[in-house]
Each structure stands twice: as C-alpha cells, then as structure tokens.
Amino acid sequence: AAVPGRNGVAVRAFMASTAASDAMQEKRVAGEYTAANVQVLEALDGVRKRPGMYIGSTGPRGLHHLVYEILDNAVDEAQAGYATEINVVFHDDNSVSVTDNGRGIPTDIHPQTKKSCVETVLTLMHAGGKFGGSTSSYSVAGGLHGVGLSVVNALSEALEVTVCRDGKEYRQHYSRGKPLTTLSSTTLPDESSRQGSCIRFWPDKEIFTTTIEFDFSTISSRIRELAFLNPELTITLTKEEQDAQVQHNEYCYAGGLVEYVAWLNNDKKPLHDPIAFRKELDGIIVDVSLQWCSDSYSDTVLGYANSIRTVDGGTHIEGLKTSLTRTINSFAKKSKIMK
In what residue span(s) does the Histidine kinase/HSP90-like ATPase domain sit (predicted)? Predict the structure, then answer.
C-alpha cells in the first residue's frame, strides 16, 4: 500500500509475507534457550573442543607451545633449587620428551580426588603445587595456572609420564587426556639415586591443522633464553632423525644475565663491560644487566618475570626506565656535564 511521505512523495509500505513470518517463528523455537541446551563438558573435553583458548592456535605456534608448557614446569623445579639438568628430545616418531632431575611429581594419593597426585595434575585443570602462596612448593614459578600439563595431555593422542622418587620408578600411559593404565611402580636398584620427571607426548593429529613437525631453531631460541636466565641450569636439546646425523646442543651460561647482554651485543661496539646488580626486597628478587654501545641508536630492553618474557612491558620495565633516567640526569647535573 502507498502512503504519503515527505515532500508529497508516496512511500510504499511492505508487509512481511506470511511464509517469512512462519520461518522466523520456527527459528525461534529451534533456538530455544533452556537448561536442556546448556552443556557441561567433562574434565579436559573443553580443551579439545576449543584448543585455541589454551595454546593460542592449532598451527605451528600452538604445537610449539605444548613443548614450552612442559619445559616451563621443569624450569620451575630448577628455580626452586631442586633441578640442575633438563633434557629435551625430538624423537623420530614425532614425539617430544622433556626430562628433569628435580623432585619428581608426587605419587601419593591426593586427599580430594582420591587418585594419585600424578593422575590428578594430568587430568584436572587448575591442579598444581603453585597456588599456596607461602605454603606452596614453589616461591617462584612460570607455570602458575595448573593447566599446562593437563592441556598437553588433552591435546596428545598418547602421553607417557615417568617419575623417579623415593627409590622407585612410576609410569602411567594416557590418550587424549584419559588414563589407559594405572600408575605402576618398580623399585630402582639400591645404588641408583635417580630422581625427576619425564613427560613424553605425541601431539594429536585430530587437533593440529599442520604437519606434526617441531622446528629445532624455534625451540633452541627459547631454551637459550632460559639457560641465560637460570645460570645454574644445563639444558640439552636433541633431535633424532632417521638416516641423518643427530642434532645436539647443550646450553649452560654460568655468567647469567651478564653473558646474555654480551651475547645480545655481540655484533656491536660496547663502551664498557656489562653492568649487573641484584636486589631482594619484600620477597621479590630483581636481576638487572645493562650495557651501552657506541654504534647503537635505539634501545633493546628485554623484560622477564619468573623466566617468562613480558613482551608488552610492565611495571618492572617502566620502573627501570624511570629510575635509570633519573639517576643519569642527576649524575649529569652534579658533574656539570649538563647545564
């Protein structure tokens, strides 16, 4: 029907057809939102449903993130003062193993879950030894959320955990987050002082969109960084290849941050040896190393918290820049270098 519009121009009004109206009504009924529509995903099913939420992507970035999750747990053992060696191996069957010589994941029965502590941390989200504050097993930790190990387990078609502690070796096998066996134990020889944890996992081809292939240089960059940040730790990276020479690198930098800065400025002309200092206050330890170079016209500032790179900066970076600027300005004025 035509109705008068502005300036006397007739405007035709269209009524929705009966068919379109019925279709809309059907859609509303089909999309009813009741308790029957609310799904409750069990344990690690949510991780498999939306893996990108936990590891960033299902491409190469997410694939390498699996290694970092296990590696960070091993580094936490080193930062707690219990591990001195970590071995990362890319096996020729597309699996990765990360072994440390720390205390080993506890194997006793957890009072809440009534399962072994190993199974608890491998199958439940937010289960870990790093939540207790002053009562925690770790005063410093990078893997703080209790999701790393369980997420890797959920996204692996197979996972083997081996724990050595209290004179025994414990083993358990998993697939896609679910235990295939119970935790078995064998007694180690009397002369053996072996202890620590080993996680070996095979990423799930159903989850990852690209070929399961780990890049040696990508992982080695992260390992080198961790070795600089933890001077008492030795980390090895090995890549097994069929019909090819095995790649093997060992990373240990006793000089810590001083060695890191020297390595970063390797191709520049430094004006002095790296300056380094360490301060502990209110339970927080700060380590800093600095060096100025005559042929560098922009700054390179790398910040870390508990060995995790803080790419977006933070109060620790802002505090350093502010105090450094204030100190240099104050010295320049007192020395009458600046008017």
Answer: 58-207
